[in-house]
Amino acid sequence: MRYGIPHSFAVSPCLPAAALLALLLVTAGPISSTALAGPNAGGALLVHALEGITYTTEHVYGYCHPRPDDPTAPRNEGAATITGRWVEDCSDVDSSFSDAATPQVWVVYASFTDDNYPSLAGVEFGIEYSPGLRLLEWGSCADFEASTANWPASGSGTIVVWVGEHEERLVPAYWFAGYAPSSPFEEQEGLHFSVTPHPINGGHFADRSPAPVLDDIALYGTLGFGQPGTAPCPSVDTYVIRADGSGDFPTIQDALSIAAPTSVIELEDGVFSGEGNRDLKFNFTSFTLKSISGDPERCVIDCGGSQTEQHRGIRFDPGTRASRVEGIGFRNGYSGSQLGIATQAKGGAILANGGHLTLSNCVFEDCATDREGGAIAGSGFPLVIEDCAFRRCVAKGGAAGALEIGGNAKLVLRRTEFTDNRVEHPLNGHDDGGAIRVVTGNLVVEDCVFQGNRANRGGAAYLLSVDAQVSGTTWSDNHALAGGSVYMAQNQVRFDHCTFVENGAIRGGSIFVDVYPSELSVDSSILAFGPEGDAIWCGGANVSVRRSDIYGNAGGDWVGCIEPLLGTGENIQRDPLFCDLEGGVFTLDSRSPCALNATSERPTPMGSQPVGCGPSVRGVVPEVLRGDLARAVTESSAESRFGFVRITPNPASRDMSVRFSAPSLHGAELIVLDPTGRRVQRLVATRDATPGEFVATWDGRDAKGRDVPSGAYFIRLSAGEKNVTQRVSILR
C-alpha cells in the first residue's frame, strides 16, 4: 500500500534513465550525460530509523517531515512526532533499530556536504532487504514517482521527482514501514534494509537545470535491525589517478563525476590521453585538479586534438564554483565547430564560461583553435593565472593566440610567460592579440613576460574597454601591423615598471592607442630599440608618460602625441645599457641612466629588470625581485661566452636537470645561490676535467637537505675568474 504519491507510473524495464527523467522533469530539455559532475556530485543516500515513532496509517505525508516532540518547534499538519533523535544533518542519522517485532518506520534521505550547493529535483535508486522483513506501507516524499513493476520488492527500483528543487543538505526522499513477524528478533541474524543503485539505470541525483545533470550517488546506507547499520556521510576526499588507469579511478573524468565538491584529484606523473582524460567537464562543482609532483613537464594532459578530430582539455560550464588546476601541462588541444556552437568552439585547451578558476604552475603548448583563444577562452568570470607558461599556441580563425577573456570578466596574470603565440586569420587586419585578447572587464598583469608573439593588431595583447594595471612586465620581439606589443581601444591602462624591447609595428611599435576615450599612463618604464614604427601611437587619446626612457625606436621615440613630454616628469631619451641586448638579457648595467636616476623616494630603476651585470649574483639582483620568470641573468655578454648553464624544467618544483659546459673546467664549481648571494648548495666541484657537456641534478634542497622555499635562485658555473649564471624559479 502506498501513501503520499500524487502521481505514479509503472516503468518499462527498457526505458533508460535519461528518457524516464525527461518524462518526469516535464519542464526540462535534453538530459545531460552522467559524465558531467553537477551540483549534487558526491552526495549520499542514507536510511534513518525513526526510533520512537508509533506507526499508524493516519500519517500520510508526516513520515517525510517528522517534527521533534518540542512545543517550540514548527508544526507540520499531520506530521508524526519524534520522541527520539531529531535529524538536522548527516551526523544525526540513526542507522539501526533495537526492535523489529513491532512495526517501525524509516526514511531515505539524500545527504550532501557543506561544500555542496545542491539543486535536487529527482532521485533514482533501488532497495534490497532481508527475506524476513515485511513492508507494510511506503510512500514518496516527492511529487512524481515512476517505479519498476515489482516495487517495492527486494531488488526493485524507483525514481522520484519534485516539481521544484531542494537546496538543503539533507532531503527526505522516501519512507517505509515494516517489521519482521516470522521469528524471534534475536534469531534473525543479519536482518537489514539497504538502499542501492536502481537495478536498470543505476543510482542518480538529478538537478533542475534546463538540461538536467545526473550525478552518480556516491554512497549508500544500510539500516540494521538489532545490529549496527551504516550511514556513510559524504565527505571531501583526495583521489589519486594514474595514466595507466590503476589509480582510485580509471580516468580523471571518472573521479570528477563522483567526487564531492572541494575534493582534490591528484595526478601522478605521466601522459594522460584518450577518452576520460580529455574533454573533461566541471559543472556546478568545485575541485582541485593537481599533479602530485608539481611538475607540468612530467604530468601532462595530451588532448590529441587536430583540425579533423577536435579535443580540448577541460570545459568549465556556467555555475561552476571556485576550482583550481595546478602543476599540469596541456598540449595538442584543438577546438572548433566539432565541439559545439560558436561560443563552445573556442579555447583549444580550456573553455571556461562560469565559476571562479585559478590556474597555477601550468604549461600550455601547441594548442590551437579555429575560433578564439588558442589555449584558453572564457567569458564573465574571475580567472587567475599564476606561474604558468603559454608556448606556440595559435588562433587560426579568430583572435587571441593563447588567451581570450570577455564579458566583464576579471583576469589576473602573475609571473606568467607568453612565448611564440600567434593569430592566423584569413581576413587581413582582423586578427587581434597574438597572446591575449581581453574585451570588457578588468585586467591585472604582474611580473610577466611576453616574447615573440604575432598578430595584426596587438602583437602580444589586444585590449578593448578594459581597465588594466600592468607592472613589472617584459615585452620583447612582439610584432603586428598596429601595436607591436599592445593595441588598446576605449581603455584605461597603466604600465608601471615595464620594459618594451625590440617590438615592432607600422604604427605603435610598442603601444597603439586607438581613438578617444582611451587613457594611457606609462610610468617608470623603458621603450627601446623597436625595429619598426614609433614607440607610442595615439589617436587623440589622453596619454601620460612619467619617469620613463624611450630610445632607439626606428619610427621615432618622443614623437606625435608624446613629443611635448620629453624633458618633463623625469623622462629621458638615452641608451638604457642593457647587459646583453643581443642575447636577450635586459637587466641594466650599473651605468645605465635608467638605474642612476633612482632616488630615496623612488628607489627602483626604470623598467621591469634589476640592475647589474657583475661576475657574481650578489649585487646583481635587488632585494625586491621583479618577475620570477625573467630571463637568465649572466655576468656580461663577453664572459657569457665562457660557457652555458641550461636548467630544465624551469620553473621547477623539485628535481631539475642542470646541463653545463665550458672550454675550461679546471677548478670548476657549480653552486646554487639565493638572491642575496648566499650559497645554498654545491652541486659540482672539480680540480680538473676534460672540456665538454655535463649534467648535474638539483633536488631543490639546501646543503642540510631541507626543501628551499619558493622563489628565485641562481645556479652559477665558475672556473677561475670566469663564470656564467642561470636563474631558476622554485614553485612549491
UniProtKB/TrEMBL annotation:
<dbReference type="InterPro" id="IPR012334">
    <property type="entry name" value="Pectin_lyas_fold"/>
</dbReference>
<dbReference type="InterPro" id="IPR011050">
    <property type="entry name" value="Pectin_lyase_fold/virulence"/>
</dbReference>
<protein>
    <submittedName>
        <fullName>T9SS type A sorting domain-containing protein</fullName>
    </submittedName>
</protein>
<dbReference type="InterPro" id="IPR025965">
    <property type="entry name" value="FlgD/Vpr_Ig-like"/>
</dbReference>
<feature type="domain" description="FlgD/Vpr Ig-like">
    <location>
        <begin position="668"/>
        <end position="720"/>
    </location>
</feature>
<dbReference type="Pfam" id="PF13860">
    <property type="entry name" value="FlgD_ig"/>
</dbReference>
<keyword id="KW-0732">Signal</keyword>
<dbReference type="InterPro" id="IPR026444">
    <property type="entry name" value="Secre_tail"/>
</dbReference>
<feature type="signal peptide">
    <location>
        <begin position="1"/>
        <end position="37"/>
    </location>
</feature>
